[in-house]
Amino acid sequence: MSIIDKAIAAVTPQPSAQKREEATRNARAVSRRGDWLSAVLDHHDEIRDAFAVGRGAKTAADRTAAMKALALVLNGHALAEELVLYPALGQVGGKAHAAHANLEQTTTKAQMAELENIAPSKAAWRDKWERIEGAVLTHMFEEESSWFLALNEKADQPRRLTARYLEEFQRYTGRA
Q1: Cα–Cα distance, 150 to 1 (Å, whole number)
Q2: Which terminal residue of the chain has fewer beta carbons within 10 Å of its beta carbon, N or C?
C-alpha cells in the first residue's frame, strides 16, 4: 500500500454497507424519474456493478475489460458532476463540499492511472481495485446522504441541471 493509499484510508473512513444502502434508498425517494438525481443514482448503480465485475474477474483479460468498463462510466459520471453539479452545489452554499468532492474525484483518477500500471494478473491489482472501490463507495455515500439532497432541495433550475448533466455524461461516454 502506497503512502497516498494509507493517507486516503486514514482520512476517509468507510460507512457500512447498510448505511450506504439506506442513503441510496433515501436519495431515490426524493428523486424524480428522469431528473438529474435519478440519473446520478443510476450511474452510481452502474459504478457499483462495474466494481463487482472487476472484483469477481479471474483472468487478466477479464480484469482489464472490467477496468476499461469502469473507467468509461466512472469518468463520464465524474466529469458531468465536476462540470455541472459541483458548481451548482457551490452556488447553493456547498462550496466546501464541492471542493472536497472535486479533490476526491481527482484522487480517484490518479489511482485509476496507477491501476493501469499494475499487471492485472498480480495480487496488487486486486488490492488497488478494492482500495479504489472503497474510496468511490464512500464518495457516493457522501453525495447520496447529504450533498446531493441539499442540491436537490435548493437548486433553482433543476431542469437545466438535468439537461447539462446528461449532456456532459453523453459527451464523454457516447451514451444517453
Answers
A1: 35
A2: C
Closest by CA to 42, choosing from 2, 67, 76, 87, is 76
* C-beta of residue 32 within 8 angstroms of C-beta of residue 38: yes
Q: Among residues 28, 11, 22, which one has the least CA distance to residue 152? A: 28
* DSSP at 35: S
Q: Look at the block and give the residue holding cell 463507495.
A: 137
In three-state secondary structure terms, 174 is coil
Cell representation of residue 25: 434508498
Residue 109 corresponds to which cell in the numbers above? 483518477
pLDDT score for 62:
98
In this prediction the pTM is 0.91
pLDDT level of residue 176 (50, 70, 90 thresholds): confident
Compute how many other C-beta atoms are within 10 angstroms of the C-beta atom of residue 19. 12
C-alpha cell of residue 29: 425517494
